[in-house]
Amino acid sequence: MKKFVLFVWAMVLSYLPGVTGFIYSPRAGASQWYDSLEKSMLTPAPWVFGVVWPILYFLLGVALYLILRDARPTRQKLRAYIPFGINMVLNALWTYWFFGLHMPQLSLYVSMALIIVAIWLMRVFRGINRTAGNLVWPYIGWLVFAMYLNGAIVNLN
User: Fold this and answer.
1) What is the pTM of this model?
2) Model pLDDT for residues 115-146, shown as the tens digit of each residue
3) E strand or H helix at 69, and its extent?
């Protein structure tokens, strides 16, 4: 039962930024501002984001679960919780600043910070559990692509 509770806790924490995304991300023509922006020709269809982000949050949740259930003392694992928390806050802030406040330039800087923190997170997770660290790689890859899309919007508008 304890493992199940840890798993649920890890999932809840990892999906928290998705709540911000759900509140502020445009849905089917709901954002005239976003729809009016010039975007990269590599910008995926809107439904792709709705598929990719839940998968990435799930992978981060599994990675966090592997860290939470590791036998090391909590004090040692604190090194992993810090970048995870920073990452979740930055992830939520990016969505709010980009879609909520319409500040793509500031969001671009946040996306750069997100990549740095995600690499830090991957390295720290990998030091505790190799699988947990490897589960962060798809997230890093998507963040790099998202930064490109954000940068294209800044440059084209």
Assistant:
1) 0.91
2) 999 999 999 999 999 999 999 999 999 999 99
3) none
Whose tokens are 């939520």? That residue is 92
Please state the domain count of the chain.
1
* Angle at 65 (CA atoms; ends 62, 68), nearest 5 degrees: 160
Q: How far apart are CA 86 and CA 152, in angstroms?
A: 25
Angle 108-111-117 (CA atoms, 0-180°, nearest 5)?
Answer: 150
CATH of the domain at 24: 1.20.1260.100
Domain range holding 22? 2-156
Task: Please say whether the beta carbons of 147 and 112 come within 8 A.
Answer: yes
DSSP for 102-156, please give it. Answer: --HHHHHHHHHHHHHHHHHHHHHHHHH-HHHHHTTHHHHHHHHHHHHHHHHHHHH
Q: What is the Cα–Cα distance from 99 to 36, expressed in whole angstroms?
A: 13
For residue 98, how many C-alpha atoms fall within 13 Å in the half-sphere facing its CB? 26
For residue 131, give both structure tokens: 């699988």
